Amino acid sequence: MSHELRSPLNAILGFAQLMESDSPQPTPTQRSSIDQILHAGWYLLELINDILDLAVIESGRLSLSLEAVSLPEIMLECQSMIEPLALRRGISMTFPQFENPSFIQADRTRLKQVLINLLSNAIKYNQAGGTVVVDCTAVIPGRIRISVRDTGAGLSPDKLAQLFQSFNRLGQEAGGEEGTGIGLVVSKRLMELMQGMIGVASTVGVGSVFWIELTSEVDPQLEFAKDASATVGETPIPAVPRPRLLLYVEDNPANVRLVEQLIARRPDMRLITAGNGRDGIDLARGYLPDVILMDINLPGISGIEAMKIIRLDPTTARIPIVALSANAIPRDIEKGLEAGFFRYLTKPMKVNQFLETLNVALEFAESGASKSA
Fold first, then answer.
1. Contacts of 192 (CB under 8 A, 6+ apart)
2. How far is it, in rounded angstroms, from Cα 128 to Cα 175?
3. Distance between CA atoms of residues 225 and 231, nearest Å
4. Is the overall model pTM greater than 0.85, yes or no?
């Protein structure tokens, strides 16, 4: 379905962009027509993405990676993504300041999707010169609420009752703002899958407050440090003549820092990292690491897809690739091993298990290098 919808759209957007940059340059009338094609095309792509997201969620086939996610990092990323839209609309934004680390249990990519949806709505449906205030509070022990308050027109009780209905834009289709009418529906489904909640309070003429709640998490670095200090000295480090290279493909900075701390304790190893599957493939081909550590839920292509591409390249085919994922049910592990991973580790990681697996993978890589020599 995705392929069938995207293929003709790829041609429309592709050729329109070629016409836009053609030589000689399009006339002003032609450029105006091309701009309309591109605007409608990109909007149609957004609509297709929303519909496909909803279809995958409602079919029960969406795979989430629930793990400890740093709330300050997520807020900073969302702020940098959404502020250009706010500046264009003349909307002032206020984000919370965090004095201490704060973590919640969520799928990093999907949490950003929900927050960006709430923030973009708060900007688009605000009044001229309005404000958006984002806040984070602990409502009850173990739960954190993220709220997005706007100074828009507000919603009447009858509209609030229809808010989470698919394709219902509450009369906004008559206005100048484009929208699919399913962003909040997708957000609600995603919050439920992340074992969270979403809600809203609104007053006509005053504005609205949309909020989400998720389970708070302990700082994974503190837990990791305790575990590492107890086990890292017990695990034998293989004697090798040169530092071995580990490539870690992971989009969650907190998880990257955990592995960085552990590898820093091993003088026999050096670490390089990639934040997505495509970059991971490029680094694997460029550096030929001894071992690759791969997350499954990555932006763009998945870890499984990246692993298969690395396997198909003769220069990287024999590198052992270890999965490290929050997808921890037995079927996930079974599917990962069947797909071709050397080993499959789950988050939160057990340090001794991680170190043992790393040693096994290094021995495998060493034996492969000896044979090829």
1. none
2. 15
3. 10
4. no
CB 67, CB 108: distance < 8 Å:
yes
CATH topology of domain 220-372: Rossmann fold (3.40.50)
CB atoms within 10 A of CB 5: 16
Answer yes or no: are the C-beta atoms of 153 and 116 closer than 8 Å. no
d(CA 288, CA 62): 33
In this predicted model, what pLDDT tens digit does every residue of 24-58 receive, in sequence order?
888 999 999 998 888 888 878 877 877 777 888 87
326-337 pLDDT tens trace:
777 777 888 889
- Mapped onto helix, strand or coil, the DSSP state of residue 103 is strand
CA pair distance 188, 339, nearest whole angstrom = 32
231 within 8 A of 352, measured Cβ to Cβ:
yes
SS3 165: coil
Q: Which fold has domain 64-217?
A: Heat Shock Protein 90 (3.30.565)
Q: Are strands 269-274 and 244-249 parallel, antiparallel or unpaired?
A: parallel
Q: Looking at residue 56, what is its pLDDT?
A: 80
* Number of Cα atoms under 13 Å in the Cβ half of residue 4: 2
